[in-house]
Amino acid sequence: MLENRAVTPAEPNTGDAIARNATFATTHWSVVLSAGQQKFPEAAQALETLCRTYWYPLYAYVRRRGFNVPDAEDLIQEFFARFLAKDCLTRIRREKGKFRFYLLSALNHFLADMWDRERCVKRGGGQAVVPIDAEVGEARYRREPLDNASPDRLYERRWALTVLTQVLNQLEQEYEQSRQDQLFHALKEFITADPEHVSYAAAANALGMREGALRVKVHRLRRRYGELFRTEIAHTVSRPEEVEDEMHHLFEVLSG
Asked: What is the CA radius of gyration of the chain?
């Protein structure tokens, strides 16, 4: 299952690396960080896209800190309402580093401010700028391991798994668009399952193809998975050289 298995993407060739560096300025977080007045619409959309993708790790973090379900939902909604306010881009563009760090730091500042002022969020008071489904979030939270992981550790683990889920969903969409959804579902286990529990021979037989042809298709699937994985990571860091470091960190989190 994806929760327990992460496949390290294959190393790209030099040409791929050059192409990625050339287009890196268009990734979400880099667009936000380089925002000028004339680029606000694009930067605002990029920031909202990131928040829509990565809201659950924040929800899990707040719940692990002891907030109940209604308060966690309201806090995250209010946080995003303030975080995505029009003047936030001017503040953010002075920052550097990974979006993962910046988002958690901003949330902690928000929670401290709410606590210091002894105010509680009025239920429904914040503008729902990021759609948060509390029922879905809580259902996911109830499946979290009953361990002693700190809120910070849980946040990083959920972040890593959100990246992998996002990549797998993008990959599935590509196969569906090319009318190969059946092939994708047959090959997906070669990414998400333990290698000892998958069989090339069995999969080839189920699909009615030779094992050699299946191995080629699995290789292409994994290669594309690696490309999408790097692209998703690039959306959350500020410089191309941070991609590999972030990849290694997230895999360490998942293997720990």
From this structure: 20
